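for the recovery benchmark. tokens below, seq after
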């Protein structure tokens, strides 16, 4: 509110919002006294300045909502904790317990009919190994169906600088979307605090709302912690410049991963960005084939149930 008093703000529910961590009860146990309504009601109050009145009901029901911050753009914030395999309540009911995926389908249908572009926010990346595979596949199926409407998926949770290409569940050679995973402002996993700015085509009546570039800023804590110094954020890189991309389409990101499979210099650069290292780390030098397979497979697993893109990229590694 202080820094961006006139800027639309869209929040997403993370796995640390609840107590205990990761524990989001399903509706079948609400009557037994395990009800997260205290959390959703609190968020509805805290986010009241930014959540439209007609979206409050879904926020109170399951921590997800929709907003239209600009004409032609619909932003959908979903609660990825209902795919989180560390949310043990899902053992009781894991099939869309709060009807969130059905609601998402309805929102995408409305956006398509209205000619709107859609950005999706979710804290937990849908391709993360912690995201339950059945949920992830259904989500990927929805994104595939509405691939011409969904112009970007934005995530966090990893604390690392990454992305994930999402493929059509029925055609693993067809990239349909990109999940952008921003680095964090915290130092968890021993990296320097970072944040990211996205360039989006939002100008004029023909705006596509597609991501055209992103820029990552980092502060070097070694320097910041020296006597008399304070943190100073500097631009680390532009995605298009760093990876030589003509655009940031799903196909282009898939080609970047293919390039890293055969180009060690390109792969090492990604690893430095991933961990926000300022110098060549020893971790890169010790990244053997198994390490490289694991790193590259993550980048093409936008659907945790779809292992075929991973197998394809592993076969290209030299």
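predicted aa per position
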């Amino acid at each position: 509110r202080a820094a961006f008093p006139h800027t639309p703000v869209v929040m997403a529910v993370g796995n640390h919002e609840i107590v205990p961590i990761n524990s989001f009860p399903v509706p079948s146990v609400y009557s037994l006294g395990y009800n997260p309504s205290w959390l959703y009601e609190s968020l509805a109050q805290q986010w009241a300045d930014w959540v439209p009145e007609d979206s409050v009901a879904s926020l109170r029901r399951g921590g997800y909502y929709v907003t239209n911050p600009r004409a032609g753009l619909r932003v959908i914030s979903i609660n990825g904790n209902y795919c989180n395999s560390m949310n043990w309540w899902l053992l009781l009911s894991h099939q869309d317990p709060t009807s969130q995926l059905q609601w998402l389908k309805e929102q995408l249908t409305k956006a398509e009919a209205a000619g709107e572009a859609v950005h999706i926010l979710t804290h937990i990346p849908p391709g993360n190994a912690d995201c339950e595979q059945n949920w992830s596949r259904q989500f990927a199926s929805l994104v595939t169906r509405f691939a011409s409407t969904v112009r970007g998926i934005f995530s966090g949770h990893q604390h690392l600088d990454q992305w994930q290409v999402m493929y059509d569940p029925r055609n693993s050679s067809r990239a349909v979307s990109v999940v952008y995973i921003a680095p964090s402002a915290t130092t968890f996993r021993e990296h320097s605090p970072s944040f990211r700015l996205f360039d989006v085509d939002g100008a004029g009546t023909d705006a596509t709302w597609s991501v055209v570039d992103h820029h990552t800023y980092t502060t070097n804590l070694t320097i910041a912690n020296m006597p008399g110094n304070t943190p100073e954020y500097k631009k680390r890189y532009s995605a298009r410049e760093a990876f030589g991309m003509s655009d940031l389409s799903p196909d282009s990101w898939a080609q970047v991963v293919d390039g890293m499979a055969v180009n060690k210099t390109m792969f090492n650069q990604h690893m430095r960005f991933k961990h926000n290292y300022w110098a060549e780390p020893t971790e890169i030098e010790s990244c053997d084939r198994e390490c490289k397979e694991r790193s590259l497979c993550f980048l093409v697993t936008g659907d945790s149930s779809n292992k075929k893109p991973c197998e394809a990229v592993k076969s290209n590694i030299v």
